[in-house]
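request received
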Amino acid sequence: MNFTRKDFPEGFLFGAATSSYQIEGHKFGGAGRTHWDDFAATPGNVVRAENGDLACDHYHRYAQDLDLLKDGNFDCYRFSTSWARVMPEGRGAVNQQGLDFYDRLVDAQLERGLKPCATLYHWELPSPLADLGGWRNRDIAGWFGDFTEVIMGRIGDRLFSAAPINEPWCVAWLSHFMGHHAPGLRDIRAAAHAMHHVLLAHGTAIERMRGLGMSNLGAVCNFEYSQPADDTPEAKQAATLYDGIYNRFFLSGIFDKSYPEDVMAGLAPHMPKGWQDDFDTIGTPVDWVGINYYTRKLIGPADTPWPALAECPGPLPKTQMGWEIYPDGLHHFLTRVNRDYTRGLPIYVTENGMANDDPMVNGQVNDQPRIAYLDAHLAACRRAIDEGVPLKGYFAWSLLDNYEWSLGYEKRFGLVYIDFETLQRTPKASYEALKLALQR
Ligand code: IFM
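response:
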């Protein structure tokens, strides 16, 4: 790496992130069925129909994984809590084993001097709630609020930070309009409802956590830098609308208590009744914002109904996901989010990293492309800090190779290699490079 900890302001936090379904092993510990189990069991949705049953078996091996964070000189760990592990039916009965697991996980972080940074929901909706319409049903805000109180009633006293929902765009648009993630819908009305309800649930969870006396609560959104595929006015307009749906919608709701006009031009007829009255909950103040950033997209017009957007191939080097590597996009969002929305609130990069086809050679994984990717994006962070952006921390995605949703276990995002046959953990060259850079 071309930096050390000393190149960042005093107190800047370095962490790594994971999520429950992607690593824990969902079949253990009395967890209930989720819509990802159903989605994966439906042919054609997930590569090789893989699911999160075993994943990295973090449920049993968490101590070893937390040792990796500590030995890697990280300051904090961003993990998520599985709704279905804590409340197998989504409502009502609580699975004590699930609560006990997160209790142990938090204590084990504190014992190692790691700051626990929790996300309440990282995508595994309990199936019984999916049966009731899931994110399309307005009641989900209350159900989510109840789950929030149950899990945070147990671990909320020891967290460094908490955020309700990872990447609202993925929960709503990717999953209900594009159909790429569970529940796999391609339906504009479902998408419009989910876009709104995910924010209503976010605000409800923040209110409930405040009610429990918790502090340092944030919102974590993902962003893609959209650029026109060519210099026609049509491409420019398409890229702006893509930006609206992806990047502006959720931040506008939370920080400006409104939705962008260009997005509402298409979504308004499909919105749930009374959506205009929910902004006081949606806009409940937060203490920080998290930016998840990976790539940019070139966007042009498509000959389809609204939003009529087409993603076009770009010329830049790509990751194993086929995503272009574009660190300037991270700098763009750090400065823009601070200027246009959060206006001085602390910002964290809550996810950033790359999938790479990391071959294991003689027991080692020499992932130089990942080292270059992380280095370039951390340079973009330093540039933003120098320009006055109150960036307070950076989390690499991900600590471990894991379940990359509809792409199964093939795409490797980890700093640590997982042999999915033996579940052996092998730190990659990127882990060792970060460990050196983060020495105190
Ligand atoms: O693996 C995902 C994660 O669950 C959410 N953010 C993006 C990552 C890479 O696709």
